[in-house]
Structures are given as structure tokens and as C-alpha cells.
Write a structure and sequence with these properties.
Residues 229-260 are annotated as: Disordered. By secondary structure, this protein is α/β, with parallel strands linked by helices. It contains 8 helices and 7 strands, in the order αααβαβαββαβααββ. It is globular and about 45 Å long.
């Protein structure tokens, strides 16, 4: 608890530097089940030559890219501590892997990637930052490239999950009102309706794919979907997308699975 308190009172990069050695043992690391489901959904959309794991953390998503991409994979994060752990943790038997310290809002890459993935980092971006963030992703993709990330359907109002996320966001807002530097991490600000609109305005075509591994809610909508934003130069994915009803609610908060 003391360590988490120190991290929470730091800046976002410094907080993750401190957390990095133990990050893979926390609930914040993206579960393997999510990584495997995303990999299975993306594989038919390939082949991919080059991939970027945006806000890679300790490299959980980077490992997925090493199995999907044939030529080269890059992990980018603004935390030097997380990158240090990722370098030690990820050993690729396939394409070479590079690690780059970079802010997702100012990516230092040319249009060199066929696939960009991100797992659970979007809570670190305020809604007003999404246009710039998505424009940056668009700028590093080759023609026909794809930007993919998983989204959990929003918890029903009044449910335990709803109150947990609301409580977390409230605590973070109080913390940021009283303490500097701010620690931006909000689970309820990444709304699918807003995200789809900003992706389209950035030049993407947006498709939603249900991840059947996580089942469906009582209303029949999927619990988790994969958002795939592609440049208009590329062909549609084999089989075409599905439209997950509940996960696509334009006003529902669709929080990221977790950072990793």
C-alpha cells in the first residue's frame, strides 16, 4: 500500500518507473486470456510485416506482435522503467524487437507499421487528447494498416463494477485537484461513441469484432470486443466485422481492459 501511494502521488511516467519491477504481478497487467483472444482475432487479417505496441508497458502486447508480424516489432512507452523490464522479459524467436521511449502524443516514427496495437493505456489520455493521439497513430501506419485494441462493454448502472469504476475515477479527480503533478488515469472517459467519431475524423474506417472467448451479457451483446481502425487503402478483414450491440453503446463508458 505504501508503494502504491508513492506511485499514485508521482507523475504518470515516474509512477510507472516505480511500479515496473512488480507490474506483471499486479491486476493492471493485461490478462493472457485477453492477449490470446486479440491475437486470434487479428491473425486472419494478416499477414503483417511490421508492428507497433503503443504504450507497451512491460511488453505483454509486444509478445503478441512477435507472433503476428514477420519482419520487425517495436514497443514504445514513456516509462524508462517499464521498457527496461520489457527488454529483459521479451525474447523473440521470430522478428527482431526494438524498444523506444516515446510519448504516444508525439511519435518519432515514419509511416512504417502495418499493425498498431494498444492494451489498456487509454485511461491516461483525456478526451480532448484523443484527436491528436489518433492522428499520431494514423501518421505511423502504412497504407492499409490497422490500429487495434480491445474494449470491455460498460458495466450496467448500479452494478458492482459500475460503482467500482465510478469510485476509482472520483478518487483520481480529487487527488488531481489537490496534488501536483497530476496522475491521469480515468476508466470512464474512454467512451466508444466518442472514440469511433474521433477515429473516423482521423481518417480511419472503424470495425468492431466480438471476442467470443468472453461470452455475452444477458442482453446478448458481447462482453469484450476488438476495435479495428484501418486506413481506407486496405481491404476489409475476412468475414467482415460484427456490430456488438452493447459494446457499441455510444454513451456508455467502455474502459480499457488494463495497461500492459
Amino acid at each position: 500500500m505504501r508503494e502504491l501511494a508513492v506511485q499514485a502521488l508521482s507523475s504518470v511516467p515516474r509512477g510507472y518507473d516505480l511500479l515496473a519491477p512488480k507490474f506483471d504481478h499486479t491486476p493492471f497487467r493485461t490478462p493472457d486470456a485477453v492477449l490470446d483472444a486479440v491475437e486470434s482475432a487479428l491473425r486472419p487479417m494478416g499477414p503483417f510485416a511490421t508492428g507497433l505496441d503503443l504504450c507497451c508497458g512491460t511488453g505483454a502486447g509486444t509478445g503478441v506482435l512477435t507472433r503476428l508480424c514477420g519482419e520487425h516489432v517495436t514497443g514504445a512507452d514513456f516509462s524508462a522503467g517499464m521498457l527496461d523490464v520489457a527488454r529483459e522479459r521479451i525474447r523473440s524467436d521470430g522478428p527482431p524487437v526494438s524498444w523506444v521511449r516515446a510519448d504516444a502524443r508525439a511519435l518519432p516514427f515514419a509511416p512504417a507499421f502495418d499493425l498498431v496495437v494498444s492494451f489498456g493505456a487509454f485511461g491516461h489520455f483525456l478526451p480532448r487528447e484523443l484527436p491528436g493521439l489518433f492522428a499520431q497513430v494514423r501518421s505511423v501506419l502504412r497504407p492499409g494498416g490497422r490500429f487495434a485494441f480491445p474494449l470491455v462493454a460498460p458495466p450496467r448502472p448500479g452494478s458492482r463494477g459500475y460503482w467500482a469504476l465510478l469510485g476509482f475515477d472520483t478518487v483520481m479527480r480529487v487527488r488531481n485537484a489537490l496534488w501536483r503533478p497530476p496522475f491521469v488515469m480515468y476508466y470512464r472517459t474512454f467512451r466508444l461513441g466518442d472514440v469511433r467519431r474521433e477515429l473516423v475524423q482521423a481518417g480511419f474506417r472503424v470495425e468492431l469484432y466480438a471476442l467470443p472467448e468472453f461470452g455475452r451479457r444477458r442482453d446478448g451483446s458481447p462482453r469484450v470486443c476488438l476495435v479495428v481502425a484501418r486506413t481506407p487503402d486496405g481491404p476489409a478483414a475476412p468475414g467482415g466485422p460484427t456490430e456488438p450491440d452493447g459494446a457499441a453503446e455510444p454513451d456508455g463508458p467502455g474502459g480499457p481492459v488494463s495497461r500492459g
